[in-house]
Design goal:
Layout: E1 18-25, H1 33-45, E2 51-53, H2 71-87, E3 94-103, E4 106-115, E5 118-124, E6 150-153, E7 156-159, E8 164-168, E9 171-177, H3 187-193, E10 198-203, H4 211-225, E11 229-234, E12 250-254, E13 257-261, H5 271-274, E14 277-284, H6 285-294, H7 296-302, E15 310-313, H8 342-365, E16 373-376, H9 381-397, E17 404-408, H10 416-429, E18 432-435, H11 439-449, H12 464-472, H13 481-496, E19 500-503, H14 507-512, E20 525-526, H15 533-546, H16 550-560, H17 581-585, H18 588-600, H19 605-614, H20 623-639, H21 641-644
């Protein structure tokens, strides 16, 4: 079944800027170019990638020693290259292969780019290692400014030099070879400044203790510095083992993150088990383009002195593929704010709680010692998180927890469960607790406004108890925004009258505008301001498991399992929560996924839906459900910017924040049509 949201007719590059790369180390026969070309061809034929990267000197082997000085080996490598080009002419892919070539009477360590049956260009190695186990300067000459701009291969003039980039549609490819990456200023840095978004490294890196981790860090960090994809392919165990062992390490990274890597000699595999190694990943060119646009320092670096480059058009004639490529070859995290690995999740939670606490400690230091810290405690997730941060901050600042006034303000929708949880929290944390039943205040407000709450007519004889009984008999789909807002604003009035108000609303609620303006939307400081809803539950659970014990730990676990609700509509007659937020606006896990990819990466509607279809959501939600929820997200996100434009201060903890003073600034009256895929011109 075809994957939705793909652009029709795309066979080579995926829709949405997705570009597939294979980095491989084929089986190797030392000094046998014909056999190595055949092994490379097998790898190429088994790959459906848009670009296939092979190792340094892969047509001969890196460990040929003085055989590099023989005419037979050099001629054989050149002939193998030309035959490989012809054999792959129908492959709809760029192929990058390493070999020795004679250039102006010098032997050079080169990377050749094949596409459409032709050699599109040749890039020589810039830096030759000639220390410890390496003796490349004995055999090769490094690239220099005196190199010719082109060389002849089989009578055809082919672009040559370290100043070459190769373009195919949105992909711009830069190439460096092994040692080039290990230098203080790798050639790939200049290539990225000139527009390369895919960087390649043909390598022959031998295995020694600890070297794999260093190699991996170099690849990851260079991809991050250059805001690019970086593919690395290193020679395998088929190389000579007279003095060295090569592991066949292949790695693909994107903007500071390792997407995937192959097994290698040294991580538990024996050379005989490895044979050939490879890794295939999809890199996201749209994501890279977005990050380069928004990271101003990347453009600033362009103004510095850097090399000039020639761009070779490596466009290919589209050739039909065997079947559609619908499966994305990269992991799409359904919960981008919540690490899937337990160890990483625990470290993330610990760090976030520390950031939140440090932010509040600093703010408390600027307040008079007698200031009361006022928090509305509902017994739900968000207020629980804010309360435990307040307790930790008071402990760290040397203030008594009695400086915290935890107010419970039961209303018409409060259930016995959450009311009990709130009271237990206040007692367990040892804070000053107050309870104010807001129902009479709200009833008086309804009378003053002449409002019939949820259609129920009230008069001077209406009491809180009689109204509550009428509310319990309402159908589940009853709604009344004024009824809800009056309760929210009454609670804020009481909180603001008690002291310095600590806000509890989270980032997901800010994105959706799921708050009452100048009510729970407002406070003096908000420690939850950049915490997404999907992460709040894990933070509370982490605190239960690692920061507290006994009854408080058990209580925090119960709260973490409570359904998400503002409890502004009456409960059912059985006393359970009637108003489920997620049944009204859709699952928060979807909204947080949409929030992350819209704000962090600037993706459009179709791209976000495509990524959602590739995540585990497809097992839980239909395409129609995901589409409807995304439409809700975009509509509410645009309609509620006016609330985000005046949110209180609060600490940023992750890569996404909606603070109007920092990460996210947009007009409150922006039109959402373009972002919701409504781009048709109006009819005449």
């Amino acid at each position: 079944m075809p994957t939705p949201y793909l652009t029709p007719g795309i066979t080579s590059l995926f829709a949405h800027g997705i570009f597939r790369i294979t980095a491989a180390a084929p089986a190797l026969s030392i000094a046998n170019p014909a056999a190595n070309a055949a092994a490379s061809l097998r790898v190429i034929e088994n790959s459906d990638a848009d670009l296939i990267l092979l190792p340094e000197l892969g047509l001969t082997g890196y460990t040929c020693g003085d055989l590099f000085a023989t005419d037979s080996l050099v001629r054989g490598a050149r002939e193998a290259l030309l035959k490989l080009a012809v054999k792959t002419r129908d492959r709809n892919a760029m192929i990058v292969v390493g070999l020795p070539l004679v250039v102006a009477d010098s032997l050079m360590n080169c990377a050749a780019v094949l596409a459409g049956g032709h050699v599109c260009g040749v890039v020589p190695k810039s830096f030759l290692p000639n220390y410890r186990e390496f003796y490349e300067a004995r055999h090769f000459r490094a690239a220099s400014t005196s190199d010719p701009p082109a060389i002849l291969l089989a009578g055809v003039k082919v672009p040559f030099g370290t100043d070459l980039l190769f373009r195919w549609q949105d992909a711009v490819v830069g190439i460096e070879i092994c040692e080039d990456l290990w230098t203080p200023v790798p050639p790939s840095a200049h290539q990225a400044m000139a527009g390369a978004n895919i960087l390649l490294n043909l390598s022959a890196s031998n295995e020694t203790i600890g070297k794999a981790a260093w190699r991996r860090d170099l690849v990851r960090s260079q991809s991050g510095r250059c805001i690019a994809a970086y593919a690395y392919s290193s020679s395998g165990p088929g190389e000579s083992t007279s003095d060295l062992v090569f592991g066949g390490h292949c790695v693909i990274a994107e903007n500071g993150h390792i997407l995937d890597e192959s097994r290698r000699v040294g991580d538990g595999l024996e050379p005989a088990q490895v044979g050939e190694t490879s890794v295939t990943c999809d890199v996201d060119l749209q994501r890279l383009a977005h990050d380069r646009r928004v990271v101003g320092s990347f453009d600033d670096a362009r103004t510095a002195k850097h090399l000039e480059f020639r761009v070779v058009d490596a466009s290919l004639t589209e050739a039909p593929r065997q079947g559609a490529r619908n499966e994305l070859r990269r992991y799409v995290d359904a919960h981008p704010f919540v690490p899937s690995e337990e160890v990483e999740l625990e470290a993330r939670c610990s760090e976030i709680l520390s950031i939140q606490t440090a932010g509040l400690v600093k703010r408390l230091s600027r307040l008079p010692q007698a200031t009361t810290l006022s928090i509305g405690v509902s017994g739900g997730l968000d207020s629980t998180l804010a309360l435990l941060i307040a307790a930790r901050a008071c402990d760290a600042a040397g203030r008594p927890r009695q400086d915290i006034c935890g107010m419970t303000m039961p209303g018409f929708g409060t259930t016995k469960q959450t009311r009990a949880q709130a009271d237990q929290l206040l007692e367990a944390f040892g804070v000053h607790g107050e309870c104010v039943d807001i129902r009479q205040l709200c009833l008086d407000t309804f009378r003053s406004l002449g409002h019939a709450p949820l259609g129920i007519k009230i008069d001077e004889g209406t009491t809180v108890e009689s109204l509550q009984q009428e509310l319990l008999r309402l159908p589940d789909d009853a709604s009344d925004l004024t009824f809800e807002n009056v309760q929210a604003r009454t609670r804020t009035l009481l909180l603001m009258s008690r002291g310095f108000v600590l806000g509890t609303g989270d980032m997901s609620e800010q994105a959706l505008g799921w708050s009452t303006y100048n009510a729970d939307h407002m406070s003096m400081y908000n420690v939850n301001t950049s915490i997404p809803k999907t992460l709040v539950r894990f933070l509370v659970r982490y605190a239960a498991d690692h920061l507290f014990e006994g009854k408080l730990s058990d209580l925090l676990h119960r709260i973490a399992d409570t359904p998400i609700s503002p409890e502004l509509l009456p409960p059912t007659e059985e006393g359970t929560i009637r108003q489920s937020t997620e049944s009204t606006i859709g699952p928060y896990e979807l909204h947080d996924f949409f929030l992350f990819h819209f704000v962090r990466h600037g993706f459009g509607r179709d791209k976000i839906l495509y990524l959602a279809s590739q995540a585990e959501f497809s097992k839980k939600y239909s395409g129609d459900e995901m589409e409807a929820t995304l439409d809700t997200f975009l509509k509410r996100f645009f309609h509620n910017q006016f609330k985000r434009n005046c949110v209180p201060d609060g600490p940023k903890v992750g890569t996404v924040s909606l603070s109007p003073r920092g990460d996210w600034r947009m007009p409150s009256d922006a039109d959402a049509d373009c972002f919701r895929g409504q781009n048709e011109l109006p009819e005449d």
